[in-house]
Amino acid sequence: MKTEITLIVNGEAVRDVIEPRTSLADLLRDRLRLTGTHLGCEMGSCGACLVLLDGTPVHACLVLAVQAAGQRVDTIEGLNESGDIKDLQQNFHARNALQCGFCTNGMIMTAHALLSESTAPTRPEIREALSGNYCRCTGYEAIVDAISATAKQRATNAGAGK
Amino acid sequence: MKSPAFEYLQAQDIADAMSAYDSAEGDAVYLSGGHSVVPSLALRLQAPALVIDISRISALSGISLEDGWLRIGAMTRHVQAMNDPLIAAHAPLFAAAAPFVAHPAIRNRGTLGGSLAHADPASEFPAAAVAMRAELEIVSPQGIRRVPADDFFKDIYETAIEPGEILQAIHVPCPVPGQMIGFDEIARRRGDYAMVGAAVQAVTTDGVADDVSIALFSVGDRPTRAVSAQAVLTGSPIDGAAIAEAQAALCDDLDPPDDPQFPAHMRLHLARVLLGRILTNLKVVA
């Protein structure tokens, strides 16, 4: 039997009637056409489907959409429009931290969450944070570079602003 | 893959959840963090008619001290096990084990109770629960009972929880003065399932170990208490000679299976190496 749910996606209230088996990722992609959330493994291994659920990164493939009812979901589209990740995007671009781009949504989500908690993460800390994100193209080095560079830029800008 | 269709109910309280389970005549699963249940549905390893969401039941949340025990609600997320100050102080092996459990986004959502109830023999929290001599609070329609961790884990994915029952909380006895702990595992990559892992807690008085508790994981069908190694270590200082004896004694405690990735004798060897590492690096927590 279908269930009606409401949730906040990228700041807008969304109401839909869905099958309970619908994952949050399928709701975002198939119903709301927010296809920046990628589905790789659908079992929590690859990290391509990360979204923010009430501000915390979670696998959208492992959360049933009905479980997210009443909660706030932010996807890569929302973060993109807000401008909050502009510097991360620029650094990923500048350092060739993506090739096919399939994993990039998850990488950016992880990086965004890490940099909101830690202003000067070390490379091992960045690697630890990225441990649940698979990239099959780049070998990770450039991704770690891009996140590290963003952290340093933000620290410099924060210092200059004082 | 996608899950087969099922009905969904968000339970308001435990009575509500258990009565739904009863109405489904057992063709139901409880859902908390969903990080084992949802993939098992997607892989079609199970196909219940009803999924009962227990994640918003308030009785399953909260962390509090009660008469020398720390009571940890089953819905406590892995990330809380890693960062909560009460858990760090009073159930330190859970805090020590948490960074080894999967990856950050999984830890944001997966629950301590879910990990224990799932009882994967390669997972970290069950061994930590055994080493700390935790007790598991299980609710059934008849009432509440507490089962010691040593009796809780029965087999691969099998526990003392009977069909329809719910794991409500985990009780951990608070550390006594002089208590030390150690936790480590050997895995091919960080976050992968361990080839072997161990949780250790020990109390020494005047340099002599008088209570040693060792639980290994990924060595058999459930977390395994190393009774012989514990006996060897008890009554003497935990020094090089005692550690070597405890490592040797592990062959009486473990009977790991051969598997396609590596043979039993390699797992036993790794267990000895790991136990040596942990015992030489025990950290005082109280």
TrEMBL record, chain A:
Pfam families: Fer2, Fer2_2. It comes from the Bacteria. The keyword Iron applies. Keywords: 2Fe-2S, Iron, Iron-sulfur, Metal-binding, Oxidoreductase. Residues 3-79 form the 2Fe-2S ferredoxin-type domain. InterPro entries: 2Fe-2S-bd, 2Fe-2S-bd_dom_sf, 2Fe-2S_ferredoxin-like_sf, 2Fe-2S_ferredoxin-type, 2Fe2S_fd_BS, Beta-grasp_dom_sf, Diverse_Oxidoreductases. The keyword Disulfide bond does not apply. PANTHER family: OXIDOREDUCTASE WITH IRON-SULFUR SUBUNIT (PTHR44379), XANTHINE DEHYDROGENASE IRON-SULFUR-BINDING SUBUNIT XDHC-RELATED (PTHR44379:SF8). This is (2Fe-2S)-binding protein.
TrEMBL record, chain B:
SMART domains: CO_deh_flav_C. The keyword Amino-acid biosynthesis does not apply. Signal peptide: none annotated. Residues 1-177 form the FAD-binding PCMH-type domain. InterPro entries: CO_DH_flav_C, CO_DH_flav_C_dom_sf, Diverse_Substr_Oxidored, FAD-bd_PCMH, FAD-bd_PCMH-like_sf, FAD-bd_PCMH_sub1, FAD-bd_PCMH_sub2, Mopterin_DH_FAD-bd. The keyword Cytoplasm does not apply. Coiled coil: none annotated. Keywords: FAD, Flavoprotein, Oxidoreductase. This is FAD binding domain-containing protein. The lineage of its organism: Bacteria, Pseudomonadati, Pseudomonadota, Alphaproteobacteria, Rhodobacterales.
